[in-house]
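[audit] Reproducing an earlier prediction to check determinism. Same input, same settings, fresh worker. If the tokens differ from the archived copy the diff job will pick it up downstream; this log only records the rerun itself.
[audit] input (101 residues):
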Amino acid sequence: MWILVFFDLPTETKKDRQNHARFRKEIMRDGFVMFQFSIYIRHCNSRENAEVHVKRVKRLLPDKGKVGILVITDKQFGDIELFSGKNPDIRPETPQQLELF
């Protein structure tokens, strides 16, 4: 499973910029990485694990601004087409799943 968090937070005042930076740093601390500006992604091994991280993001929501959270499967993420200008771009690799016996 993949979690995509996309946000548009105000940055007009010093407090707004602090809230923006705090939200961004906290989701990165939870394992999200930048996919594009204001779009962060995280891979999870199961729906249950994804739900845990979605709840964490919801606890971090700032008072102002817009935040979207989307959970998709590996298959759906694998169908994404990325471009840099008109040239196809490489997609992020799916992290290897660790198996313990």
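[audit] rerun output stored. Observation attached for the diff report: The longest helix spans residues 14-29.
[audit] end
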